[in-house]
Batch of 3 targets.
Target 1
Amino acid sequence: MTDPEGKTIVERRAAAGDFDAPEWFVRRFPITASLGEAQICSGWKQVGTVHLVSHSRFAYRALWSSTLEMIAALSLAGLVGGYLGALVLRRLRQPLNAVIGQARAISERRFITIEEPDVPELKQLATAMNATVTRLKDMFEEEAGWLETVRRG
């Protein structure tokens, strides 16, 4: 606080240093507080001026706390997203493995049909593969019958 001529009447200073945040964080994100001034008057007579600069410790405390909360929230969201992604992949993997097994069986001249999965895209694939298996099975049975007829005749 200064008098009208600018002479210091009262001065208080906070201890420098303690920011309630890590040193690297304070260096990485510098915060400067601007000066606030207010006139002190008694009636029409000016008694003095108060000059105030806020300590940035409170801002660093809030910023550091928010940063930690954000990291925790993003980590939790990542874990939940990874778990849900694993569930989706597991749901897709079983029907895909069934289609792969069906394709391998065809190459071994075994004609099996699979259940149609609930996944719309894979349902179309399973339907097409089952139709192919049925057509191939009928075609091979017809060829076998024709060969048997030729062999006997």
Note: The two ends are 122 Å apart (CA to CA).
Target 2
Amino acid sequence: MKQISVQPGRAELAYQALLDEICDGSLAPGATLVQEELAAQLGVSRQPIQQALARLKGDGLLEDAPGRGLCVSRLDLSRMRSHYEIRSSLDGLAARLAASQVLQQGLSRATVEQDGRTIIAKGRRAISNDEVKAMIQQDIAFHSYIYEISGNALIETSAQLHWRFLRRVMGDVLRKAQRPPSIWDQHEAILNAIVAADPELAEHLAEQHIELACTRLTQALETS
């Protein structure tokens, strides 16, 4: 791990550093986390490490280790499905509101299409280049863009909790399973419905996309 040199927000930086390590597989399920060691590796005191570990446990990414301390949680399929159930509603609502914004001319159709297609192109390129980290980044970027243009700032805030857990699941699956280019076909269909100012279709496609993602990831984890 790289040491953290920036002074402000050490707890947040420690949290993000550990989150990255968990999501990219550097900290594997079952790995025990020792506060003193983490503090030395990241170049901070124990207090920001304690705060970061508490947040990660709250996210469901850490659990109590046998004996004492914390370890990286095993992937919990039931918890994953619960996150996806909530995301289905959030993403469906975001897509519906975004399409309504275009319908009511609160958003430029051309701008939405251009911005969305830029993200889609980057996502397809990440798959072609077999770049797992970029695949996840662009997937998050696409959905975050829909949250942004929905006009409801609370959607993205609500979705962040679920993304932190699901980002770890996606990373684990993408490192082991075949890359799914159909995801970006689904993203493109959602974008097309938003650009066409069709709230009902946009909502349906967004919800369907999340349900398919949950099914695909469940199957991949059950067979790995």
Note: The chain has two domains: 10-72, 77-223.
Target 3
Amino acid sequence: MRKTFNLFVRLLLTWTTLVLLSAYLPLQALAYDEAVNKEVFEIPLFNTVGGQVIRQVRVGYETYGHLNASGDNAVLICHFLTGTSHAAGKYRPTDPQAGYWDSIIGSGKPIDTSKYFVLSADTLVNLGVGDPNVITTGPSSVNPVTGRTYGMTFPIVTIQDFVRVQKALADKLGIKKFVLVMGASMGAMQTLEWATDYPEMVERIIPVTSTGFESNAYFIQTLHNWSYPIMMDPAWNHGDYYGKHAPIRGLSQALAEVTLNSRTPSWAQKLFANRIALEGQYPLMQWQNKYAIEETFGQAAEARSKISDANHFLYLVRAQQLFKAGNYGDIQQAIERVQAKVLFISASSDLLFFPSYAVSAVQQLKAADKEAKYIEIVGTGGNLDGITDIESVADEIRQFIKR
């Protein structure tokens, strides 16, 4: 068990919290084979959906492949809650793991970089601000007006704000049309936002493990439950902890909750069963003795929390709670705006974004005479199958892009 735990921590420090617990995945043998560089995009003044102004916005982005002269061979990849723009390839040959969707992005792969120019960007308020490969503006940034860290005075931002920043980046790069916009979980929200906000620019979308066109009450409360450990940590201090002791304990618990909710009981039982963390140290004997799953989740989440920011987590939670594609009063208005061909991909065992959510969205689109299709990733890994097992539906993705 100790060997397994060490693997988890190593993956955690080099990848994302959600993907680290996809235990026993082999490292990608055929990563995107060109050098991956992190670039910086800046906006001097950004007006949020909520009517606030953010100065000197900076986000990091990566590209794979080459944009054609007409600017119409682009693909956009939108990342999930704990993810980053690192969707494919490696920054250095010695990196232990390639980007999270490397299995489908690259020359000859479904998202073929010999044909398409692939773009992926860090969102505003990205969680991993302590990762040197993440560039983002959020609560941990210095407000150029006051010279002090924003903290919770940073404007509340939405999924629509994330997409508006991406649109400004796309314009700067000369992108005229996206052949495909694709993302999982929070990335699926951005994908649907693109299809409703900029319908003339998007030919196809693939929302993976999706809420549908808006967050429902059950998910809104689930998100609140994730936030609660942070707000109950005395070190959080209403978001005023910069230069002081950060709320690592609360953030660690929040990350552990996210990971557990993104998996399933059968996954946990298969991987951990009821094994104890250390041989001979039974929970019956001492309170500090733990089960293997407790030890692994706790230690791995704590390691990730040290390169993450608690306030950023809260802002990401709020953005997802607020999600309603197009920001219209009536979802039907958003659906009517969709021009793209749509392929929803769910995970059959997803207990976070139930497959029925995507099925319902497909029915809504078809009722509005839109072209929409639904497929499932069959497995027992829950929501995270949309990240770790995406290659199982690679043929369907390839065919959808070619249509």
Note: Confidence is low (pLDDT under 50) at residues 1-29.
